[in-house]
Amino acid sequence: MGKLIYVAITSLDGYVADAQGNFDWSAPDEEVHAFVNDLQRSIGTYLFGRRMYEVLAVWETLPLEGEPSVVQDFATLWRAADKVVYSTTLEVPSTPRTRIEHDFDPDAVRRLLKSASDVSVAGPHLAAVAMRAGLVDEFHQFVSPVIVGGGNAWLPPDVHVDLDLIDERRFTSGVVYLRYRRHG
C-alpha cells in the first residue's frame, strides 16, 4: 500500500511563497535537489491543484541538454509519473500522463493509495484538503534559512495531526530536512 506524502520547501517562518507570491528563495542547490530526487523515486502519482501544476509543468518540456544531472534526473522522474490535477477551471492538461478532476474525492485517493507506489500531494491548499480528510501519511519539510514575514503558509491553521519525527538532515546550505509520519 502506498503512502500519501506532502513535501514542501518552506521558509523558517513556515511559508512556501512570500506575500508577493515569490518563492525564488526556495530554489534547492544541487545537494538538496539530489536528495529531493531520491525521495521522489517512490512516487507513482502526483496530486496537484491547478496553480502548482502550472508552475511544475515546465518539467515536461524543459530542454535538458547542458543542464546539471540533478535537473535531468528530476525531469525524468516528473515525466515518468502520473499526474492528477484538481481544478474547476482547467479542462485539458498540458502534459502527458495527466488527468483533470474537478473535485477532490477522498475515496478515490484512498483507492489510488492501494497501489504499490507512493502518491505525492503538492501545494498547501490541496494538501490542506487531504489533511482534513485524514489522508496525509507523511510530511517532508525542507526548511530554508530565510524568514519571509508572511505569504502562503505550508500548513493550514485549522488542522491538528499528531506526528512522529522519523528522519532529519542538515545540508551545507543551511537547509534542514524534517520527515514526520502521522502518529498511530
> Can you count the beta strands?
10
Largest sheet: 8 strands, mixed
Please provide the ordered H/E string of secondary-structure elements: EEHEHHHEEHEHEEEE
The CATH class name reads Alpha Beta
The whole-angstrom Rg is 16 Å
Strand composition percent = 25-35%
The percentage helix is 25-40%
CATH fold descriptor: Dihydrofolate Reductase, subunit A
What is the residue-mean pLDDT, rounded to a whole number?
97
Large-scale geometry = globular
CATH superfamily assignment? Dihydrofolate Reductase, subunit A
The chain-level structural class is: alpha/beta
In the CATH hierarchy, the architecture is 3-Layer(aba) Sandwich
Distance between the termini: 16 Å
The strand order across the widest sheet is 5-4-3-6-1-7-10-9
Number of domains: 1
Q: Tally the helices.
A: 6
Low-confidence regions: none
Quickly describe the structure.
By secondary structure, this protein is of the alpha/beta class.
Describe this structure as you would to a colleague.
α1 packs parallel to α4. The chain is built from six helices and ten strands; from the N terminus they run ββαβαααββαβαββββ. The two termini are 16 Å apart. The chain has a single domain, classed as Dihydrofolate Reductase, subunit A. With 184 residues, the protein is an alpha/beta fold. It has an eight-stranded mixed β-sheet with strand order 5-4-3-6-1-7-10-9, sandwiched between helices. Strands 2-8 form a two-stranded antiparallel sheet.
